[in-house]
Amino acid sequence: MKRKLVLGVLLAVSVFVLGSVAFAHTPLCYCYLNGDGTITCEGGFSDGSSASGVEMAVKDTNDKVLVEGKMDELSEFTFEKPEVPFIVIFNAGPGHVVEIKGEDIKE
Amino acid sequence: MGRAFVSGLGGMITLDEMKPGEHGVIHKNRARGVIGQRLMDLGFFPGVEVFVIRNAPLVDPVEIKVDGHHVTIRHDEARFVEVEK
Amino acid sequence: MGHKKMHVALAGQPNSGKSTIFNMLTGGRQFVANYPGATVSIKTGAFSWQEKKISLTDLPGTYSLSSYSEEERITRDFIIDQSPSLVVNVMDASNLKRHLYLTFQLLELGAPLLIALNMVDVAEKRGLKVDADALSKNLHLPVITTVGSKGRGKNELKDGVIKAFDSNLDHEHLHIVDYGDLESYITDLSAKLLQSQIEESKVPLRWLSIKLFEEDEVAQKLVSSNFKNPEDVRNYVSKICSEFERKYDDTPRGFIAFRRHLAAQKIEKRCVVKTKEVSVTLTDRIDRLVCSRIWGPLILAGIIYLLYELSIVGGYELTNYMVPLLEGFRNAIEKFLPIGTFLREPLIRSLVLNVITSINSVLIYIPIFLILFALIAILEDVGYMPRMAFILDKLFRRFGLHGQSTLPLILGGVFVGGCAVPGVMATRVIADEKARLATILIVPLMNCLAKVPLYTLLISIYFAKEKALAMFFISTITIILALSVAKILTLTLLKNRPSSPFVLEMPPYHIPTIRGVLMRSIERTWLFVRKVLTIIMIVAVAVFFLTNYPSVGEERINTYQKRAEQIKNVFTSKIQNTPFASQFKRDKDITRYLVIEERYKNQKRALFKASDERREKFEQRFAERYSDVYPLLNAKGKDGRALNKAFKVMKRERALLLMDLRDETLHGSFLGMAGKFLEPVTRFAGFNWKVNVALLSSLAAKESSVATLGVLYQQKEDGQTLAQRMKEQEKGFTPLHALALMIFMAMYPPCIATLIMVKIEAGGWKWAFIALGYPILLGMTLATLVYSGGTWLGLSGTQGMFVFYAIALVTAFLLGKVKGSVVETDIDEKTLKGKEVANL
Q1: In a domain, A2, yes or no
Q2: Which of A25, A39, C612, C675 is the most exposed place for a label (fewest CB within 10 A)?
Q3: Is residue C590 within 8 Å of residue C342, measured between CB atoms?
Q4: How many CA atoms lie within 13 A of C217 on its CB side?
């Protein structure tokens, strides 16, 4: 029992030591036209972290919110392409925001 | 064996008691050890002119002009320097 | 002697412009290293002149050559042990008297000296004209006038160096300073030492005698080890010292320093002419504002804000340009890795991609650091740092810190996201060892940039109604906690570290050189990349194995295989009526297409901002290389759409399948076991084993979807949604949980890069481990207090926030009131005006 304890603690500590490369978190977001009238945006961070749960918003040129939601468990967010000019906002907190103009979204 | 020291005689005070705008000439540096060394390194010697420029926004430390050059020291350290006004 | 390589050292007081002279001579070719066992770094470089190769070492700036500080000891040791062919003493022409104080000591040490009279332009502006010839005559040394910042005097200095070397100067018998009444004793002692030396002394005996009278510790040790009858010597010295003190009411040490001062004064009178009376300089005028009661702090706040805006925010913008580059790098390697099967990736593929991601995560910081370090270099060169310390010292001192701790804490992230790495690097300037170590240990507690997304997520879910308040809470709680921790550290762990005096020079402001700033910035960034990259790569590999082994068992794999087959069958059935069906006859065709499609997307994405021409070329080349599947990638028409839709569904299903497999692997891996193992303890902080694994993995195995963000947002097993779960307080995560988690994350131990920096700056792995260990304990304790305490008291998340904040503030305030440890100094008790001695 004692050996297991020691091993366990050692393990936990070593994992903590070995962990922590949580580092440069540049947010990434790319959007594509799906060809069926919807758009899918894929999100992530430059260090490989998942972006699931991050808030997404689609706004028109008057800053009115057209669609709202969050990145799903695959870090994807799909929505219907709005008729009007729009921008997509990936918002993971201050300093971690990506904005994509609707007109830049292609196949 | 200590000297009886009467304050006010000859206008002798310690540096930390001086107020911004006051002048003086250093009489003696009483600090020893590393503080004494530092004070000497930055020019605190007998016969040198000092001028208190200002206190920090939080009162401590104090900016002093020693022999024409600007230095900042804490009041705790300034009290070792005897000055003749 | 003439044809050997010349070793030249640069010595001088701080703010003498020594570094600029160094850069001027070496032209930027330099190499920074840490003196073994020290936290002070030494710069070495080289230059060629008149067909000779000269190596140049930049010694640390010191005011004197006592043995109190590491810088001084290193300078002394270097001159004694390395016996440089020449020492160039860089002096500030506008402060000759004080700089001569060091010159005399260098001469006494026996260093072959050449004077570089620097900053003559500044001296002139202040109305001081220095006669270099007179100085040379008075010192019996060659003197070269220079203006380092403008490159003036470069060739003359190089000539002077060669000339001095060739002429083989000997200064040991040059006694410039007359020690008056002490002279006879010095001579006597030197004679004594000559007689009792065991072997020929490396140091001049006169110097040693003088140092012994100065009660220099290192000199005393030297005598004990290298001389016969050290007791004799010691007794002699103490006898003379006490006699002297009685007679002159001053220690020999003070007397010696004073004589140097007088000698310097005499020489200054002879060589310096005051051409105009400058009563109020520009520096004075600026300081009136910068150091004032109201404007001072405001300006400081403004500068902090600017620092952030430009480096963190601005640098962040620049990272957007780094991303395509780094992705390009990844894509380039990816092409060569084997493909694997629908369900499993070959080991080498996973491993390599994992390592590349880690490397990229370090490289991406380069723009931020370049800007940040440049800005700091500017602040340093301008001379603002002592002013910063001046303003905040009183506040920081209460907590065992130092006025100079300001910058490191700012960089670590006060209020907004910062980075602990440059923060720790910036602690280098703090002379006071106790305060420096305390600062190093608390910088990681500040608001690191990488923690921001987590706070945001938690706040958006659990404190949605009080977002701003919660954000304010978490941003400000860190500095409050950090100050308290610093105080506790200085009272306990660091109690016996020596304290240094605060006495700081406030140099005149001056305009930095672009070259100096750029070079320092590049130098520091490169140092960071070099040190961190290797370790991170090793860590990535280790982490990879911890999170993938032991792997999922045979039986479970079969279940996954079955699901995989299903997904594939759905796909093939959907496209069987299209002309594309023939392309997917074999199993591996599907896998291959998946990989190629991903490759296509990634490479296309990296060219997002490229010219149309480049994009076309890319399409062409891709079409050529993958001619069989290229037509599928952009297939149009009814069939094309069918293919596309079916493919997208399959891709998504596969992704979900792989995610499940990864999750299961993670839970069964060593990492998962660690998480479960810790649960009995972490339970009191509200962390169940899943959260533990998420915490560990969010930092260790970032690719895992069981990253903290994911696990908190969705737990698919119950089939419940977030909202439903929130209603059932027992099972789910409550705001109080979130609060505990946020506090734990705030305290969370620093990332590897920071730990490496801690080791470098604090001088040992022991400190890195402390910096790693105590936040874990602290974080767990606080989180436990918050969760268990809050639950017991029946507090809601928001209430818990307020209560915790209040407690933290009060604690910090009280700790600030506690008096620090006694100042170590000998005080001349007799004559101090009846004041309380040694009781602060």
Answers
A1: no
A2: C612
A3: yes
A4: 7
Q: Which residues of C touch A19 (CB under 8 A)?
A: 543, 696, 699-700
Phi first, then psi: what are they for C246, rounded to 5°?
Answer: -65, -40
CA dihedral C153, C157, C159, C163 (to 10 degrees): 150
Domain limits for position A93? 23-104
Pick the closest to residue C451 from B68, A16, A24 (CA basis): A24
- Nearest by CB: B33 against C824, C829, C835: C824
Pick the CATH number of C185-274 from 1.10.287.1770, 3.10.20.310, 1.10.10.10, 3.40.50.10490: 1.10.287.1770
**What are the boundaries of each domain within chain B?**
9-84
Note whether residue A3 is domain-resident: no
- CA B57, B60, B64, B69 dihedral sign is negative
Whole-angstrom distance, CA of residue B35 vs CA of residue B41: 10
Of the pLDDT bands very low, low, confident and very high (cuts 50, 70, 90), residue A18 is: very low
Task: Please list every residue in chain B whose beta carbon sits closer than 8 Å to the beta carbon of residue C63.
Answer: 38, 41-42
pLDDT at C122 over 80: yes
Nearest to C364 among A26, A70, A107 (CB): A26
Judge if pTM exceeds 0.80: no
Domain ranges, ordered by start, for chain C: 6-167, 185-274, 295-491, 554-664
Q: Is residue C398 over pLDDT 80?
A: yes
Q: Which residues of C fall within a CB distance of 8 Å from B51?
A: none
Cα–Cα distance for residue pair C404/A95, rounded to 1 Å:
27
Whole-complex ipTM: 0.87
Average pLDDT, integer, range C449-467: 71
pLDDT tens string C549-587: 888 888 888 998 999 999 888 888 888 888 888 888 887
Cβ distance of C751 and A51 shorter than 8 Å:
no
Rounded to 10°, the helix C132-139/C252-271 angle is 140
Winning range, highest mean pLDDT, from A33-47, C83-97, C461-475: C83-97
Alpha carbon C751 to its chain centroid, in Å, reads 12
Subunit contact C417:A11, Cβ cutoff 8 A: no
| A96: pLDDT strictly greater than 80 | no
Per residue in C153-173, pLDDT tens?
A: 999 999 999 888 777 666 656
CATH number assigned to the domain comprising residue A76: 2.60.40.3080
Burial (0-12, 13-18, 19+ Cβ within 10 Å), C306: exposed
Is the CB of B49 inside 8 Å of chain C's CB atoms? no
Cα-flanking dihedrals φ and ψ of residue A76, to 5°? -125, 155
Residue C81 DSSP class: I
List the beta bridge partners of residue C116.
C90, C144
Residue C480 has pLDDT above 50, yes or no: yes
Q: Of the CATH numbers 3.80.30.20, 3.40.50.720, 3.40.50.300, 3.40.250.10, which one belongs to the domain with range C6-167?
A: 3.40.50.300
Residues C90-102 as b/e (b if ≥16 CB within 10 A, e otherwise) read bbbbbbbbbbbbb
Residue A77 lies in a domain: yes
Mean pLDDT value across chain C: 81
**Residue A44 in this model has a pLDDT that exceeds 70:** yes
Of C711, C420, C472, residue with least CA distance to A24: C420
Over the range C685-723, which residues count as b (16 or more CB within 10 Å of their CB) and which as e?
bbbebbbbbbbbbbbbbbbbbbbbbbbbbbbeeeebeee
Supply the mean pLDDT for chain A: 76
